[in-house]
Design goal:
The chain is an alpha/beta fold and 189 residues long. Helix content is 35%, strand content 14%.
Length: 189
């Protein structure tokens, strides 16, 4: 796994967990696809441990059958950057979102480039209390969610959403931990 470009911040928002997540089952570096990770944020931001998120994405992709010779990317960006990507690629409204995934080859046996995941830690931090509970759990959930999209999962239909949420829960709890709050419950009014 490659990790590149961690950007220090002079005014970070601290992640809200005192202890790092449990590592879950260990997969050797040769057992998972390569994930190239980069932190391209320029504004003061949430402190993020990039290497564990990249390892989590690699483990999700391996669990979904991605070949170990394939590669994916994980990039952390500011709210403006993800809003621009959302607008350019998804006919978005110009508002920031938490995560975007851009599948390329998926997890097919002959895949070379699985796809790209873009995460906005600031949006994740802001929504975490009402979703997964902590910033670390929210970021992990977003990485699992995006990894499943790269592997071909979708949640447009109600049945698909139920299956995808069940797989997210299974992978998040196996590879990260049970989140502080149940993000799969319907939001409270």
């Amino acid at each position: 796994m490659s990790v590149a470009g961690a950007v220090p911040s002079s005014d970070p928002v601290e992640a809200d967990d005192d202890e790092p997540p449990s590592p879950g089952p260990h997969l050797g570096a040769r057992d998972v696809p390569n994930v190239v990770a980069a932190d391209e944020r320029t504004q003061p931001h949430t402190v993020v441990r990039l290497e564990p998120l990249a390892a989590l994405l690699a483990s999700v992709l391996a669990a979904e059958g991605a070949p170990v010779s394939a590669e994916a990317s994980l990039t952390l960006v500011d709210p403006l950057a993800i809003a621009t990507l959302k607008s350019d690629h998804l006919d978005g409204d110009g508002t920031p979102t938490d995560v975007l995934s851009f599948p390329v080859d998926g997890v097919a046996d002959d895949a070379e480039l699985i796809g790209d995941v873009v995460v906005c830690p600031q949006v994740a931090h802001d929504q975490a209390p009402g979703h997964a509970g902590t910033t670390d759990d929210e970021l992990a959930l977003l990485v699992v969610h995006a990894g499943l999209h790269l592997a071909g999962w979708d949640h447009a239909a109600t049945d698909d959403r139920a299956r995808m949420w069940a797989r997210e829960r299974e992978l998040l709890e196996a590879l990260h931990r049970r989140p502080a709050r149940d993000p799969w419950s319907e939001p409270s009014p």
